Amino acid sequence: MPRPTPFHPRTSELCTSMAYKEWAGCYAVCRYDTYHDREYYALRHQATLMDATPLYKYEVRGSNAADLLSRVTVRDYSRHSVGRVSYVCWCDEHGKVLDDGTVTKLADDHFRLTSADPALAWIHRNSRGLDVTMTDVTREVAALALQGPLSREVLRPVVGNGIDELKFFRAMPVRYAVEGPEVEGVVTRTGYTGDLGYELWMDSADALRVYDAVMESGTPLGLLPMGLDALDVSRVEAGFLLNGVDYTSARSAFIEKQKSTPYELGFDWMVQLERDPFVGQAALRQEKIEGPRRKLVGLEVDWDDFEAIYESFGLAPHLTAETCRAGAPLYEHGQQVGYATSRTWSPTLKKYLALGTVDASLSRPGTRLEIEVTCEYERHRAAATVRPTPFFDPERKKA
């Protein structure tokens, strides 16, 4: 049975839809209203607050903490400065991706790793000979995602004017101005929405006081609580991948075809090959020479084609309100050349978007493909064009 997060006493009062799902063993709100529209538009025009506590969180400490993370991920952490946050993936010995997440350097000998799947045992197995300690703080550390164009204005009264100086993918220690004694924590300028945003980290015991302070500051600015449905739309617009949907962890894959490499997922910009040995290095060196056989791409579905399929049955075009995670084949000249994973209607861009994996030779932006569309139990095809991601990339995200 799922367990409540530290924020559940507040989020459960606000969730009138009663729509929940399980996220890493915790209750997670899908949407607060009957539909997620209000939350989505608040995200893109005001600000939203989402409970991100279920993320797995691990503290890595010791004189060899950077060496361990450099060994188990595709990045080199030997020269990272305190306060830097990095997005990273990690692979098995064959160069197949296990998961992706963030690493924050909190001190010279102290890092925090977040992940979608449990990772502590795997990291521990690779720590032999190193002076490190690893602690699972998933339940002890609570997290909030404050996202949207007004998120800085919402956060300023809670943590002070220093937030104006926090750069993209950087972290800073803060004292939250809350009811009662101040609460110490960390704010990172990160998020999963492709917009201006921050993630707030604090001890679980202090979670409700921080939540109340942020909501009090943000309500006059239109701040709304947000669930996973609106997040799912925004992360597709941002071109962000989801473990278990857009790729399968090598740990969970049943067959080799289900596994992916960083080069296939577009994570090649993360991979730092020329350094001390790390897990999967030899396999990734070989793939860089040979090139990946397939690539993950963004797709824009031709709305006129999609609409015509439904009109042929005398129906209006229909899409689910939520992001569709059911796979759909992709074709070129009648031959299947890949598959789409996440598909969603973008209210901001007014486009039908998808993420998909195709043969590497067809990954160039502008390539014309077809996507399978099922209507009235019949299979049809609509045109789909490869587009660069992110689809939505506002200047305010990094400003």
Description:
With 399 residues, the protein is an alpha+beta fold. The chain has three domains: 8-55 and 138-226, Probable tRNA modification gtpase trme, domain 1 (Gyrase A, domain 2, 2-Layer Sandwich); 57-137 and 261-290, 2-Layer Sandwich (Alpha-Beta Plaits), CATH 3.30.70.1400; 294-396, Beta Barrel (Elongation Factor Tu (Ef-tu), domain 3), CATH 2.40.30. It has nine helices and 19 strands. It has helices at residues 8-14, 37-45, 65-72, 120-125, 151-159, 207-218, 228-237, 281-290, 303-311, and strands at residues 19-23, 26-31, 48-51, 56-61, 85-91, 97-107, 110-115, 133-136, 141-147, 171-176, 183-188, 197-203, 224-225, 294-301, 328-332, 335-346, 351-359, 368-375, 378-387. A six-stranded mixed beta sheet has the order 10-11-12-9-3-13. The chain is globular and about 65 Å long. The two termini are 42 Å apart.
Strand content: 25-35%
CATH class of the largest domain: Alpha Beta
On the 0 to 100 scale, the average pLDDT is 97
Instruction: Give the N-terminus to C-terminus distance in angstroms.
Output: 42 Å
State the share of residues found in helices, binned by percent: 10-25%
Topology:
Blueprint: H1 8-14, E1 19-23, E2 26-31, H2 37-45, E3 48-51, E4 56-61, H3 65-72, E5 85-91, E6 97-107, E7 110-115, H4 120-125, E8 133-136, E9 141-147, H5 151-159, E10 171-176, E11 183-188, E12 197-203, H6 207-218, E13 224-225, H7 228-237, H8 281-290, E14 294-301, H9 303-311, E15 328-332, E16 335-346, E17 351-359, E18 368-375, E19 378-387
Helix pairs in contact: 2-7, 5-6
